[in-house]
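Dear colleague,

Following up on yesterday's call, I've attached the two folding results inline so they're easy to grep. Please treat them as preliminary; we haven't cross-checked anything against experimental data yet. The first protein's sequence and structure tokens come first.
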Amino acid sequence: MKNDYRLDETRLTTIASPKTDSQYAMLATSPSTVLGLYNLGFSDAGGYTSQVVVTTGDTSTLSEVEGGYYTTANCEGTVYGIGLATGPYSSTGDPDTEPVMLNQLTDTADGDEENVGLSAQARDNALPASAPCQGGTIFYISDSISGGLDSPVRPVISMWDIASGEYREVAMDAGPLTERLMRSDGIGYPQVSADSIRDGRLQWFGVSNSIMSTDLATGRTEKQFDVAGVTDEVLSSQASFQGDEVVVMVDSDGSNPYEIVRYHRDSGVVLSRTVVNFAPEDLAAGLFLRGFAVRP
């Protein structure tokens, strides 16, 4: 809440950066600039506020924008957020019927958020902190029904055009797979990362610790291979796609340590396996593993 930190080959730099304590995302928008997005909460004006913290060199600047954004994307250095319409973008005042908004959060004329699009079809139930953005379109997986824990789910590839603000979706087709692509209780929610798109397909992690692949045009989905992982009501392994690899941070179930396993993202061949001999509670009391980053 007081500082940002940058660790490189030579030293650890501490940069004064007061802000709130709930982070949506942290994105490198250039080799020397990092943007952090934080959840400040409901505002006095009746909307919802997020903090945008931009750190460059040894300085950090903070600004506030309207909205809450569990889905974010870095589109060639410009950051976009997707969330439930709030404040001036609200049309119903009811969270169950509000549209979903796509807002540009950086590089705007006045420094505030800029609304790009609104959709009554889109659902605010996806959690990617770094959704892929390719060819001017943001991609992620969501549930088009979003009816609650006891409702069926209908997984779709959600797509937003950042120029027109148009939203569209393609239903995901599991074909002969017997496993569910998505659970209604949120366990094992599909994970994508900024480099998930490859050859017209969206690669993602989910379905009982598997690497999956979905055709962006047809929605046809296939299991590529199983990976090491621990996923249940409490624990969730995580994956990041980068170049020819997918790197999995295997969560600890208490009896086994954390592992970092690198796979070839197409063949599933294990490229390396590293045991991480630490527990989050050794670093600070009460912390959980929320995310990890793979060096480019």
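Below is the second protein, in the same order (sequence, then structure):
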Amino acid sequence: MAALARWCLRRRAIVIVLWLAAFAGVAAAAAVTGSAYSNDYDIPGTDSSKVSALMERRLPDRAGDSDTIVWHTADGAGTVRAPGVERRMTAALRQVADLPGVASVTGPYGAVPATGPYGAGDTGRLGGSGGLGEAGDTGRISADGHTAYATVVFRKPAADLGAAEVRRVLDTVRTAASGAKGLQVEMGGAGAGLTERTGPAHLSEAIGVAVAAVVLFLAFGSLAATLLPIATALIGVGTAYAAIGLLGHAMTIADFAPMLGMLIGLGVGIDYALFIVTRHRKGLRRGLSVEQAAQRAVATSGRAVVFAGATVCLALLGMLVLRLSFLNGVAVAAALTVALTVAASLTLLPALLGLIGMRALNRRERVRLAERGPEAAASQGLCARWALYVERRPKLLGAVAAALIAVLALPTFSLHLGTSDQGNGSSASTTRRAYDLLAEGFGPGFNGPLTLIGSMDGADDRMAFTQLSETLRTIHGVASVSAADLGGGGDTGVITVVPTTAPQSRDTSDLVGRLRSEVLPRAEEGSSLRVYVGGLTAGYDDFAAVIVSKLPLFVGVVVALGCVLLLLAFRSIGIPIKAAVMNVAAVASSFGVVVAIFQWGWGSELLGLGRAGPIEPFLPVIMVSVLFGLSMDYQVFLVSRMYEEWRRTRDNRTAVRVGLAETGRVINSAAVIMIAVFSAFVLSGDRIIAMFGIGLAAAVALDAFVLRTLLVPALMHLLGGANWWLPGWLERLLPRISIESEGEGEGEGVGDAAVGAEGDGEGAASGPVAVPVPLPEQPSEGAARAGTARSPVL
């Protein structure tokens, strides 16, 4: 590490140019190749996956994307069949059919051919569906006559459409329908959703970085030192963001993966760089030269950053054990972002430190250093008083913290995995209003019909499939059933089932389960007919079922990994067990917050997050991996200082008190930066990213302010010396590891452990720390004081 830091310092211009060139090169390549992200949750072998495959292979004309134009007349304004409304909407739909990019428009008022240049031939028609001709498709008009809809099919998939292309459609129908009193026109669908992404690009990231900058400036008082962690994180995360776009051409990458990677990368990247800058500033205040201070910061704190980053990456890559291509891409993308932020902290940051020189200290610190010479750190202030308070009342404070965590975790027991849709959007959006109008006019299940597709071989199978339509009409929970459509050359049939309940309702999921387990097996009996259930609800139910079935394995792998690392670091049975329990508590309580806001709807509309809905099925897996990685940083940082003091004094009360006093402010201040970055992503306008932002912000807040500074020290006071117990046979078997070599940190004593402690005038350092080199087994107290290997706690 010291050699790497020395090379980067002495060739800082080369290092800076290389990083900027890498960033520019990857960004240019990503811009040229474009993105290839996916939101396909299909899992091979499931019913919904088979439906999608059969539709694409045998009925390709029905597998494309389409949007829906919805219009509604208010009470007292007549119905949608009124001559004035029909004339206006027919003219509007004709104009839509004439627009470039529109393949067809199917409405309720009968066949009216498009007249523009895009309406000639077979690519620009406006007509009734189902061969009703001039009579129109009355099924597109609600029973009360106040709501109607038309289907717009674009030439390109929704993912390839431009927002301007779809906005022209929406503006056309609204303009044509303007002036009619009581007539409301909205548009729903994947294409229409593009028109609602109107916020400034990367606004949430900018706000998070700005808040982090304020915290850093308050901590350092130096503009140059404030900018270094931010610049390092932005270069690392920016390079990763562009690289993920390129990676999408080689493997399945979810469309939210780049934003998620940026969310995680900014949080840990600023923290990791802050960690090294803080250590560098400490070295400068103690009289070291710029080069010496930077080398020592990277040689000591840099090793800790590598350990922390590797832990987060391993936790993220733990998702690979699920063997789901959709999550594999998310895991690799997020791990790549963390890896590049670590690389930037170890190479780009030392070069920048050499570039700014003594300006890493603020003017007052430079004057003090010149007048008074090097200074030593002190540990005092609020955190010291808090540590003493926890020592005196561990039972009371531990009970309060445990009760708070338990209460916040209660909503987790009602967790409902499913998919959010446009019905969960903001009430001000056209897609949400279109969704609501369709639900009110045609029933809540209209927005999520189930698609039953049958694979047939012979007349008997076709007869059985035709009779299935009649059987389905008698099933509880079914609002309507289409006639069996035996298209596809006679070997494939399609039936559309509209449930009585909304796509996100548990009752709709129950209906899917009954169809698969009871109704369809009876229909298939005695024939070679095979019927599969697809559709929005069925697809996400399948995805959620696979995730839930594999979740215990995944959590077990991640927890076991964390326990092994802590066992090797602290050579104790109690520390890893407590850490595992604390991490599970943090995850459960943060899920409780997510469920309360997004599933129960507590404040979701107020925050602009739309109305209540289920939790995305992949959220638990991704959040568990991220939170276990981040929690490990705080755990090691706190307990490492306690472990050092325990080995020095063999007094558990003193060890816990000193450890908390010297790391409390560091942990809490570092957490403020992560909370600011994560919370800002609520403004992204993306419900999934907002879930991650709120969940991670809540988890970090609880981890830092409740678990690590209250519950963990309280439990350690209560357990006494049992915290550090390890069977002798296991002590002999475990390898001895050191994240920081002993020689590289020489010259800094035990008092150096608190980076940014109150007496330093420093702010926060990130959670990761190096692990102390263990002493020979069971030394005497005197030997412990005299021969303790100096802990590399940062």
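For the second protein, one point worth flagging: The first strand starts at residue 66 and ends at 73.

Best wishes,
A.L.
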